Structures are given as structure tokens and as C-alpha cells.
TrEMBL record:
It comes from Brevibacterium celere. InterPro entries: Leu-bd, Peripla_BP_I. It comes from the Bacteria. This is Amino acid/amide ABC transporter substrate-binding protein (HAAT family). Keywords: Signal.
Length: 416
């Protein structure tokens, strides 16, 4: 789906009139949280505006586009049904203002400055460096930065980030899930690690290493990093291939690099089993173009149903999701990236938060955000749920390990 830097879909809004802005901000104090019953920016008796800063252009535009589309789809259907009855008794429709940051922290910071007095809360945006770029400002300004799509644990630590909360499982949790499965194997394994040289990659590696600590059957035989701005990791793959590792733990977030890595390893005759993060393991957009079925196994983790998987073809949640995505987000294809599903589930969770809000303030919103417990959002896999009550954990902290089957993923108990 082609998108411009600022979207206007069924639920998006390009600009707010001066009258609406005055109504939304007139009672607020210095653009702050709206304490003591004062109405915060971005909310009226009839509507609430959510902001998003996310990559809508550049190499991460595919998943970034999905972070908007899924939320548009869910809220579009809600608006069509008449809106959401908030806990204060007012029924409001949800408007979305999405800005492109191209996965650039500086652009994300600029977008935050634009959104902080127009949007009630900023949500859903993809990227660890981009969300980190304005986390401290959001904390100082008391602007909610909630359900953002980064697994950096700092967003879920109330002492560090009282106005923030992550959505997806923390990166160490994903890495640990694969490490725990590998440690249970009855076979000996040599592991090569390739990781993105930032909080994203380091988080995955930390979780993996903690999980395999003390396992006599697992040996890390090589470990190299790359920069997110690198155009190629061919040299790293060649060096790691020389270790004869039978497992490649690849903590990589850049879609084109994952595809080229899959192709490169094959071209030099190295065919280990792979582990990939949940956000860069799309069957149709990454694994199939990269020829992943040439490897003995490609593993990842998940917490949402995959519409492209034949086993979910008749699933009612999936049918409703695909219909809403086409109708309200102008997204006619089956999503290649899980972020479309994640942001749809996020929308359902926000609806629960709004229903719990007793006051139209950011402060009360954050109280409601941190009160969701064991919520089963649409599209969630069995064994996973939304829980925002545990300090230090994101909204979703549970995942299941899956193996690529050539078209989609199958849940597995051990390495095969």
C-alpha cells in the first residue's frame, strides 16, 4: 500500500482546526497531563486523537505502514459502529494522525514536537532508536507514549518511563524463548551470533545467552555485529560461516538485510538453522524471497495469528481483521508483516483502556493503561494475553516458538 508521510484514512486526520485545538487544549496547563480533572490536549466530548510516529518510507516502511493500518482498521470499525463509550459516560470517535519518521531518530523527535499538543497520546510507532529519541521528552512533558512497538525493556520500567509502555515482548524475552528451546535439545549445537549494534540487537543476545547459560550442549563459536545503516553483512557472514556453526542467531531488524543474509549464506554453502526476530520473519516478504526453505530450519517467535497461514484461513478473528483492514485502512492485501495484526490487537486493547477512563486526562489514561490484566485481544495465539499490571514487562510478554514450513509457521516444542 502506498502511503504519503501524513496519512488520512477512514480514521486519520491531517490537521485540526483552530477551534478544535482550542477546545482540546484550552483547559490544559502548559500542554501537560491534565491533572486535577483538567481536560488534556487531543480530547473533546466527541473525539480523541491518537498520534503515531513511525517509518512510512525507507527500508522499514513495510512494517511501519502496518503499524498505522492495523490501528486504522480497528478504530475505523469502532467509529462506524458509533464510537467508544468512555468511562466518563461520553461516547467518542477515534481519530489518528500518523507522521513518517523514516526510522530516523531525529525525524521522530521532530514528529513528537508536532504531535504532543495535538494528540492525546502517541502510540503504535515502530522502532527502538526512534522511540528512544523522544522518550525522555515525553516523560518530561507528561505525554503518554504507550503500546509502542519496541522491545527495549526501558519503556516498561515505571521508575524510568512513567509515561511510557511497550507493546511487544521485550527483546531479551524473545531471545530467551529460543535459547530455552535450544538448551532442551538432546544434541550438541554450535551457535554463531550476528546482531545489530544497538539496544535492539544487544537485547536479543542478552536474553539468548542468559537462557543457555550452564547448558553443556550449547557452544557460542562466533559473535559479530553490524550497524543498522550497513548496506551489506556479507563479510560478517563469511567469517561466521568459517566456524561451522549449525545455528545462526541473527538479531536483525532491517528487512533487506535479512533477505540478503539468507541469500548470502546459501551462496557460500553455509546452511545452518536460523533464529530470526518476530518483526523480521515474515514468510511472504522475507523468508520466501530469501529462499529460507533451503535451510534445515528457520525459527522465530509469535503471539498473533498469521492470516497467510492455511490453518487460520477459516478463523473468525482473521476474517474480521482482513475485512476491517480492507474497508477502513485501504489495505487490500493479506499483510506480509505481523505489525498489521499487532496494531489491530493494540486498538482492541486501547478500547478497553478508554472504557476504564473516568476523566478526560492523560494522567487518568495512564492509570487505566496499567490496569489491563489477562485481556485476550483479537488475533492472539493460545497461551498469550495482554497484561499491563507487571512493572518492567510490556503489554505482551508471552510468546511461542515457531518453525517456518515454507508458507507460514508451525508451533514447535523443540528444535527439529
Amino acid at each position: 500500500m502506498k502511503m504519503t508521510p501524513t496519512r488520512r484514512g477512514a480514521t486519520s486526520v491531517i490537521a485540526l482546526s483552530a477551534a478544535v485545538l482550542l477546545a482540546a487544549t484550552g483547559c490544559a496547563r502548559d500542554g501537560g497531563g491534565g491533572r486535577g480533572g483538567e481536560t488534556s490536549p487531543g480530547i473533546t466530548d466527541d473525539s480523541i486523537t491518537l498520534g503515531i510516529t513511525t517509518p512510512l518510507s525507507g527500508p522499514t516502511a513495510g512494517p511501519g505502514t502496518c503499524t498505522v493500518a492495523g490501528l486504522e482498521a480497528y478504530m475505523g470499525a469502532v467509529n462506524e459502529a458509533g464510537g467508544i463509550e468512555f468511562g466518563d459516560g461520553k461516547t467518542r470517535t477515534v481519530e489518528i494522525k500518523a507522521l513518517d519518521d523514516a526510522y530516523d531518530p531525529q525525524k521522530a523527535s521532530s514528529n513528537y514536537q508536532t504531535l504532543k499538543n495535538e494528540a492525546f497520546a502517541i502510540t503504535s510507532g515502530l522502532g527502538t532508536p526512534t522511540n528512544l529519541a523522544w522518550r525522555e521528552a515525553a516523560t518530561a512533558d507528561e505525554v503518554p507514549q504507550v503500546f509502542v512497538m519496541t522491545g527495549d525493556p526501558i519503556f516498561s520500567q515505571q521508575s524510568e518511563s512513567p509515561w511510557s509502555l511497550g507493546w511487544v515482548p521485550a527483546y531479551p524475552n524473545e531471545g530467551a524463548a529460543f535459547g530455552e528451546m535450544l538448551a532442551k535439545s538432546s544434541e550438541d549445537h554450535k551457535v554463531a551470533i550476528l546482531f545489530q549494534n544497538d539496544d535492539f540487537g544487544e537485547g536479543y543476545v542478552k536474553g539468548f545467552k542468559e537462557a543457555i547459560k550452564g547448558s553443556e550442549n550449547i557452544e557460542v563459536v562466533g559473535e559479530l555485529s553490524y550497524e543498522a545503516t550497513d548496506a551489506s553483512v556479507d563479510a560478517q557472514l563469511t567469517e561466521l560461516a568459517a566456524t561451522d556453526a549449525d545455528i545462526l542467531f541473527n538479531a536483525m531488524s532491517i528487512t533487506p538485510l535479512v533477505i540478503s543474509s539468507l541469500e548470502r549464506a546459501q551462496s557460500i554453502g553455509w546452511k545452518p538453522s536460523w533464529f530470526l526476530p518476530s518483526n523480521t520473519s515474515s514468510p511472504s516478504a522475507i523468508l520466501q524471497p530469501g529462499g529460507a526453505d533451503a535451510y534445515p530450519g528457520v525459527y522465530s517467535v509469535a503471539f498473533s495469528k498469521a492470516p497467510a497461514s492455511p490453518k487460520f484461513a477459516d478463523d473468525e478473528d482473521v476474517k474480521t481483521f482482513l475485512s476491517d483492514l480492507k474497508t477502513y485502512a485501504d489495505y487490500p492485501e493479506v499483510p506480509a508483516f505481523p505489525h498489521c495484526m499487532w496494531s489491530y490487537m493494540l486498538g482492541a486493547t486501547l478500547e478497553q483502556v478508554f472504557k476504564d477512563m473516568q476523566e478526560p486526562t492523560r494522567e487518568n489514561f495512564m492509570e487505566a493503561v496499567r490496569s489491563i490484566e489477562d485481556f485476550k485481544a483479537p488475533l492472539m495465539l493460545d497461551g498469550t494475553s495482554v497484561n499491563t499490571t507487571v512493572d518492567g514487562e510490556p503489554a505482551v510478554s508471552s510468546v511461542v516458538v515457531q518453525k517456518f514450513n515454507g508458507k507460514g509457521f508451525d508451533t514447535v516444542e523443540g528444535i527439529e
